[in-house]
Amino acid sequence: MASEKPPVFGMIQRGGEVVINLLKNVQKATIKPFIEKTVAIGSLIYTDEYSIYHSLEDWGYEHKSVCHSKHEYARDEDGDGFYEVHVNTMEGFWSLLRPWLRPHRGISQEKLPLYLGFF
Asked: The whole model's pTM is what?
């Protein structure tokens, strides 16, 4: 039986660096400590519609999301022509990481953080 791969969870500050972490699962109880360690309380966090993010406001963060399932990928909330609500930067990161990792098939879970750090 193949071992379950831990999910890679990532965040990026606009204009900043990507922060990624291997988590045992993607559930509220697992991502909350990672977010609290990485993001200042009161910060505005942009996400997709995934339900694990519904508690962000309860945890002390501002939260805006786009709904990919309704074909929403960016939203101009104030009508100035700048689509400020989006997760395209992080989506772009994943779209580069996946094909970069693909040729390295068989990376051990022990070594995966090294590959992620190098990327």
From this structure: 0.76
In the numeric block, which tokens belong to residue 87? 């997760």
Per DSSP, the chain holds a count of helices (H) and strands (E) of 3, 6
Domains of the chain: total: 1
pLDDT, one tens digit for every residue, the chain (119 residues): 344 556 777 787 877 888 888 788 888 999 999 999 999 999 999 999 989 999 999 999 999 999 999 998 898 988 898 888 888 888 777 777 777 777 767 677 777 777 777 77
Burial (0-12, 13-18, 19+ Cβ within 10 Å), 114: exposed
CA–CA–CA angle 113, 89, 115 (5° rounding): 15
Domain containing 102 equals 8-118
